[in-house]
Write a structure and sequence with these properties.
By secondary structure, the chain is of the alpha/beta class. Helices cover 33% and strands 25% of the residues. The chain has 17 helices and 19 strands. The strands form 3 sheets. The chain has a 15-stranded mixed beta sheet that branches.
């Protein structure tokens, strides 16, 4: 009954707010603060005519420079949250931003308990035989160390159709075949605003299936939790590709300490373990890891414009390869581009936010989405006061597409490049102006194979209707801010072994230029036009939260 009343309150508040929004264009002139928060301005100072020529003259990082930055980031190694490599990358970014004229930089620090793997081994023992080592891909991040005696037990293979909680796994080492998630390509049509597909390659695949390992990410978490709860001696995830392609595979990346020793293996070792389990063999897992208290930080760089109202350009910094996370390099290029313009040409202030906590999701215990969530909470409070206009969140620039093809020299499949760009998803809030600007920018840059989506999930009776933007844009969307969040999810995303080959340098450059164009279009645009239905949704959210500060499962309260 309580939820029913909340739904009624939601519907009533949303209807009232939408009616107000529709009536606004016909109302007599009212103070800007009444519509957009105290001290705010709907229309920022407009740039003088000379700014168009200035913008065309302002240099943008070349293809060669962006590639060199990407190589620099990649050569630092896996930038796990709070690791020495991650800290070196943050220092490099800080130096680059501080050297940009007009940009000031500050940091927000978070203490974390960083887990780092020292060594991991997997051994197989047939009945009456000696322990035989098997090639392993790596330990599952933050899994339980085993000590010098290792974790031993009889093997049990549970098929993907089975649930660990339904079996007695106490004292056993459970083998699980990791099955990637998949959805029909036609599903994207139901959640899209539109698609930019000039070569027709996305339309040609409409009857096919979109399959990626990240689509079954949550299943790994469930297996880890159930194996620990059932007292399993260990857990082995079998990745269906050759060991050399999945060595160092990094997921799940919650930063949570799992209560079971867990390891990832390639298809060859996985097949051997399945057969051995059927013969009654046993196994041993050895995981040596160190846990230490360290600090990690989010960078916030500000470039002042004529108005203090801000457009936020955001990405995160912790990742494991050349693609994840190179969005910060695009943010750096955009910052340098706008810093080269006269201040008169920047109608609003720009904040360049480089968050931490991508690979340590609960920087604050019990609160997911890392530094992005923490910053979204701050912006949520500031939006009503007129301090924020919009957010642009950038991830995984220049991703190349890989396909899972039949393997000729062993079990499982093999990942092969298709020669095309990975489909790029650009999620956009319910704002016709933002949708139009995104589409215009994609056309101008010729960025084919791009989906402009409403969300990454099915719509529900919530505010907003879509709770996921697929990645870094999610918390800003959930906090009901005008948001454009972009991400690609190729097969190479979790695997360090693909190196710089996973990034198409020219596509990366054009995507970065596209975001610079988009930000440039946002700066002088009226805040109400960027907002679309955001004010109505925020009013409805506030009505719900006044009744139930938890949001009742319908919305995320401030």
């Amino acid at each position: 009954m309580r939820r029913y009343l909340l739904v009624l309150a939601l519907a009533g508040a949303l209807a009232i707010a939408l009616a107000g929004a529709l009536a606004a264009p016909f109302a007599t002139s009212a103070p800007a603060s009444a519509a957009n928060g105290a001290g705010s301005s709907d229309l920022p100072p407009q740039p003088p005519p000379r700014c168009r020529a200035a913008a065309e003259r302002a240099s943008f990082a070349s293809v060669k420079r962006l590639r060199a930055w990407n190589r620099k980031m990649y050569d630092l190694g896996e930038r796990l949250t709070g690791s020495p490599a991650h800290k070196r990358y943050l220092r490099w970014l800080t130096g680059k931003l501080q050297a940009t004229p007009g940009v000031s930089v500050r940091s927000v620090s978070y203490p974390i308990d960083r887990w780092s793997e020292r060594d991991s081994e997997l051994g197989l023992r047939e009945s009456g035989g000696d322990l035989r080592p098997l090639p392993d891909a790596d330990a599952v991040p933050y899994s339980r160390p085993t000590g010098r005696h290792g974790a031993r037990g009889p093997l049990v293979y549970l098929s993907p159709e089975e649930t660990i909680a339904d079996h007695d796994v106490a004292g056993r080492i459970v083998v699980r075949r990791l099955v990637p998630g998949s959805v029909p390509n036609a599903v994207f049509g139901a959640i899209s605003w539109t698609t930019y597909d000039p070569d027709g390659s996305l339309a040609a695949d409409l009857d096919g299936t979109y399959e990626r390992d990240y689509l079954s990410y949550d299943e790994r978490i469930t297996d880890l939790e159930q194996a620990a709860a059932g007292g399993a001696a260990g857990l082995v995830f079998e990745l269906g590709f050759p060991t050399e392609q999945v060595r160092g595979h990094y997921e799940p990346y919650e930063g949570r300490r799992w209560g079971v020793p867990a390891i990832l293996v390639g298809a060859d070792a996985g097949q051997a373990l399945e057969g051995a389990a059927a013969r009654g063999a046993s196994a041993r897992i050895d995981i040596s890891a160190r846990v230490e208290r360290v600090n990690t930080r989010t960078l916030i760089a500000r470039l002042h414009g004529r108005s203090p109202q801000r457009v936020i350009v955001e990405s995160h910094t912790d990742g494991i390869n050349a693609l994840q996370e190179n969005g910060g390099l695009g943010v750096l290029a955009i910052a340098r581009h706008f810093a080269a313009l006269p201040r008169a040409c920047r109608s609003r202030t720009l904040d360049f936010v480089l968050t931490t906590g991508h690979l340590y999701q609960e920087l604050v215990p019990g609160v997911r989405n890392g530094g992005a969530e923490q910053h979204a909470q701050l912006l949520d409070r500031q939006y009503d006061r007129g301090g924020v206009a919009a957010v642009v969140a950038i991830e995984h620039l220049g991703a190349r597409e890989y396909t899972a093809a039949p393997r000729a020299d062993g079990p499982g499949r093999v990942l092969q490049r298709t020669g095309r760009g990975e489909p790029y998803a650009v999620f956009v809030s319910d704002s016709p102006t933002l949708v139009d600007e995104v589409l215009a920018g994609l056309r101008a840059r010729g960025l084919e194979r791009t989906l402009i989506l409403r969300g990454a999930d099915a719509p529900g009776p919530t505010i907003p209707a879509h709770q996921s933007f697929g990645g870094e844009g999610t918390p800003y969307n959930r906090h009901i801010l005008p948001t454009v969040g972009a991400i690609a999810g190729p097969w190479s995303l979790y695997n360090p072994g693909f190196g710089m080959q996973s990034v198409d340098k020219r596509r990366m450059h054009e995507q970065a230029r596209f975001f610079a164009d988009l930000v440039g279009a946002m700066l002088p645009t009226a805040r109400s036009e960027l907002a679309g239905s955001i004010p109505a949704m925020r009013a409805a959210r506030d009505a719900i939260c006044a009744t139930d500060p938890t949001g009742g499962g319908l919305t995320l309260c401030k």
